[in-house]
Design a protein that fits this description.
The complex is a heterodimer of chains A (about 240) and B (about 400). Chain A is of the alpha/beta class. Chain A has helices at about 45-55, 75-85, 105-110, 120-130, 150-160, 180-195, 205-210, 225-235; strands at about 5-15, 20-30, 35-40, 60-65, 70, 90, 165-170, 200, 215-220, 220. Chain A has one domain (about 35-60, about 75-235): Rossmann fold (3-Layer(aba) Sandwich). The radius of gyration of chain A is 18 Å and the shape is globular. Classes of the chains: A alpha/beta (about 240), B alpha+beta (about 400).
Amino acid sequence: MAPVIEVRGVHRVYESAAGYVHALKNVSLTVEHGEFLCIMGPSGSGKSTLMNMLGCLDTPTSGTYLLEGVDVSTLNDDELAELRAMRLGFVFQSFNLLPRATVMRNVMLPLIYSDCPVSEREARAVKALQAVSLPVEYYDHRSNELSGGQMQRVAIARALVNDPAVILADEPTGNLDSATGEMVLKTFRRLCDEGKTIVLITHDPDVANVADRTVHIRDGKLLTDEQERALIAADPTTRSNT
Amino acid sequence: MRVRDLVYETATALDSNRGRSLLTILGIVIGIAAVIAMTALIGGVKQSLVGELGLNQARLVQLYAWPGRTVTLDDLEALEELMPEYECLTASSFWSFEVKNETKKFDASVMGVLPSYQKVSGLKMAQGTFITDENEDKGDLVVVLDQNSVKQLYGDPNEEVVGKTVMINNGSYTIKGVTEATSALMASGGTVYVPYSTCATRLSGYWGVDDMMGLAREGANMETIADKTRDTLIDYFNISDDNAEDAVYVYTMQSVIDELNSTMASFELLMTAVASISLLVGGIGIMNMMLTNVTERIREIGLRKALGARSSDITMQFLLESICLCLVGGIIGILVGYFGSFALTGLAGGVFDVGGEGNTIVPAIDMKSVVMATGISVGIGVLFGYYPARRASKLDPVESLHYQ
């Protein structure tokens, strides 16, 4: 079976007012089924660009990206949209829920863009909400009536609902206090233990602790093990649990 | 994305912006209301005219010639034989006499008419019957009043007066019937009808014909008949070609109707201009609101794209929103226009000089104009919604998601 994610020698170059920006330089990365990978790096390191690329929101300038063995560079916009609808789940730092819609409606949102039959939608949403342990009484609340931790769990349920190949989480605890952040991370850990593949990006070493494996990114490059050890030696707050 | 989902999203989006949406569609409401009020009023005026004139009126021809001698009933008979395209011809003479009863009197137009006059002119009876062949043959002292005359003499146009007597020029006449008030397009005021022979022997002492009218056979081409009638009159009365213009008079009601139609057309043009400007401004309002909508919901658009929405899904969603806005505006406009046209009937009655006493214009709205108004609304929605919708669909998901 092909790995869920296989990135080979990817470059991403932006054109900006200040000239060309090399956001990603020769990045190679493999994520296996059921793996919980953490991508760590300070802001501006290119981790968001990498995340957008993994999420098929952005395409590499050169190099290849295989998602479940499919080369995404060969797909057009509509096919990429379909891939996002069927095979990817997103969790954002700022939750990005529709504020006036109910929890159920928010969780069902990705399904309207997939081929999921209308009759199955509610059942799948309920299953996803159960997986993140959101109490039933909140299902018909509007999402802006929830606490931050509850909102992020709804967002995770939304990412889960289409049973994606991988869940991509971009600083999912960035807007939460440490206690609720802890709970959200536990949810991710449990989902991974149940067989989900998760890629999480963060700049917080504590967050990285829950992952199976952490890779560091600096200035658009993934660090080698050797560089990583040097980094840890230089700055003891940066740890790795590989 | 399924139709059901699109509809749900649209309804939710519009519902959350109810106040702003209603204000925005005002332009559409006014434009569509103008279109509907216009068509309803014009339809009403037309119906009211047809009702007043009677269906025969389109077949009516007024004809007369001044050959330099008195035109008589013998000429009428001869002409009737010459022109078989007429179902019948009738003649009348006009006089003016004082008409009075026990208490009141007034100066009336007195018309000596043949019994066929009623059929040709399309006069409708409110009470009793019209002058009969027997009345004409015997020269009976009978009279038919119109409702205006009844009002002059008895105060109430609907007073039961058949069988009563009135005095005309010292003669006592029995009232046989009452005709409905004549249309404003024809002579109004008090008119009374007496048999032609009675008029000639008792009142005027003159047997000449003052006016002739003909009722063309059903389905005939009025213009052809008018031309042929003119030629026949010139031939029959031996009128020289130089005089023909002045000495022969042929007039069809068709030309009255044509004239009316052209008045309507200019009125229609004016209303169309008002409606178009209003719809244009309304459409720009819709576009403006949709652009604001797109800007306000950039993050939502980014999210939807990240969750798998294709560009076409986003286009459809925003396009449907603007179409629904315009459609709601159109439906409100149709209702406002329809009920508004009732309020405007008085005004239109004045403009077109119809709908006088006892007649009111009832706005007539046909399915065609409702369908047209709905179509225009949808068209405006598509036209002015397309640009904002395309703009939304072209947004970059990554940038939109982080838009502040």
